[in-house]
Amino acid sequence: MNGPRRQCEWCKGPIPVGARADARTCSKACRQAKARFKVKKARAVASAEPKRFAYADPPYPGLSQRYYGREEVDHRELVDRLVAEFPDGWALSTSATALRDVWALCPPDTRLCIWVSRRRSSTLAYEAIHVYEALLVAGGRQRPEPEILDLTDVLIGGGHQRSHPDALTGMKPAAFCEWMFRLLGAVAGDELVDLFPGSGAVGRAWSLYTTGSVPDEDEQLELAS
């Protein structure tokens, strides 16, 4: 009698009958996608008190209806919630065009970080083309003393991983997620609340960052409950 079908570690679909016994994905495409979604594991700091952070990646102002068929997000209300519920720190993504208005809603010490998401080829346009998105960061864990870092407030590249399960417009890639976690000073043992989970890519990246592995489907449901 055949046992239960094995599940692909990337798309969660069934692994085909007849696949190799050690196969962990259902296809070459899923195997490559899983390999490309790389996040370095966070350092463990024994003396660090666990902190609770949040990340908000709402539909950008003026784009909710166009891309998601939803009403506009009230960014003033969103920022107020971030400030009230996440005093340890939070990060908020927005567009280059909306940056001025959204940043004005944030506390005075909110830092501006820039993600240059991709290069754009020459195209017809009336003005320079935006190739960056903004990440506004408030709070976070401060290091007790200076140390040599390769972390800056600008991330260049990272691309968009369209092969991610349930990929949505605006989904952030693994490189962006790791950069954002590090900007917050997050370490193993901390908690991250993703206020707009969408495709689940941020949650996957967080699991890889804090534990080195991705929870299975039952564990993901338990974490989300």
Description:
By secondary structure, the chain is α/β, with parallel strands linked by helices. The chain has seven helices and six strands, in the order αβααβαβββαβαα. The longest helix is centred in the middle third of the chain and has 11 residues. The C terminus is likely disordered.
Task: Give the SSE layout.
Blueprint: H1 28-36, E1 52-56, H2 64-68, H3 75-85, E2 89-95, H4 99-103, E3 111-116, E4 132-139, E5 154-156, H5 174-183, E6 191-194, H6 201-211, H7 217-224
Parallel strand pairs: 1-2, 1-6, 3-5
Antiparallel strand pairs: 2-4, 3-4
Output the helix-strand order.
HEHHEHEEEHEHH
Coarse structural class: alpha/beta
Radius of gyration over all CA atoms, rounded? 19 Å
The overall number of domains is: 1
User: How would you sum up the global shape?
Assistant: globular
The profile of the biggest β sheet is:
6 strands, mixed
Identify the CATH homologous superfamily: Vaccinia Virus protein VP39
| Fold-level CATH name | Rossmann fold
What distance separates the N and C termini?
Answer: 35 Å
Average pLDDT level: 82
Low-confidence stretches: 217-225
What's the tally of helices? 7
Helical content band: 25-40%
Summarize the structure.
The chain is α/β, with parallel strands linked by helices and 225 residues long. Helix content is 26%, strand content 15%.
Name the descriptors.
single chain; 225 residues; alpha/beta; Rossmann fold; six-stranded mixed sheet; 26% helix; globular; disordered C terminus
